[in-house]
């Protein structure tokens, strides 16, 4: 007999929903205020994704170090807010659009810079999280 998949608690589903609304609204607001220019390096999406990688690295490290929130931070902040704030799909479409429009060099630079900067930002977040005291109540 196959084991039943673990179903998330309704409060976690609501937390993902609420965090996703906040993250998507923040991402949209930033993109409206600082739109990417066709044919140029998509700086706004780049910065949103790098910021999200940094915050996710920091947040998850603090969770692993025993920081205690008054709520479960992963569904609300990691999955919901940061999941909606950052976006792989937009990243992929922007690369495809740049290639289709004849900007191969910019598309390659964007892809490489996003991967390298994203990893470095996540590592920086993790390192800062490791410097924080253990088991802090937030």
Structure description:
This protein has 138 residues and is mainly α. The chain has one domain. It is 72% helix and 0% strand. It starts with 9 loop residues before the first helix and ends in a 7-residue tail after the last helix.
A few lines on this structure:
The protein has 138 residues and is an all-alpha fold. Helix content is 72%, strand content 0%.
Secondary structural class: mainly alpha
User: The biggest beta sheet, please?
Assistant: none
Q: Output the number of helix runs.
A: 5
Q: In what range is the share of β-strand residues?
A: under 5%
Please tell me how large the radius of gyration is: 17 Å
Low-confidence stretches: none
Order of SSEs? HHHHH
Give the N-terminus to C-terminus distance in angstroms. Answer: 42 Å
Q: What multimeric state do the chains show?
A: single chain
How confident is the prediction overall: mean pLDDT? 93
**What percent of residues adopt helix (DSSP H or I)?**
over 70%
Number of strands: 0
Give the CA-based shape.
globular
């Amino acid at each position: 007999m196959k084991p039943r998949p673990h179903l998330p608690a309704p409060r976690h589903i609501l937390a993902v929903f609420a965090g996703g609304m906040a993250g998507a609204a923040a991402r949209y607001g930033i993109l409206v205020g600082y739109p990417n220019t066709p044919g140029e390096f998509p700086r706004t999406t780049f910065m949103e994704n790098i910021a999200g990688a940094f915050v996710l690295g920091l947040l998850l490290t603090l969770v692993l170090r025993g920081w205690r929130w008054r709520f479960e931070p992963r569904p609300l902040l990691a999955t919901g807010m940061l999941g909606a704030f950052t976006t792989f799909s937009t990243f992929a479409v922007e690369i495809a659009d740049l290639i289709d429009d004849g900007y191969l060099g910019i598309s390659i630079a964007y892809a490489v810079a996003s991967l390298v900067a994203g990893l470095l930002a996540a590592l920086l977040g993790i390192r800062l999280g490791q410097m924080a005291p253990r088991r802090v109540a937030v």
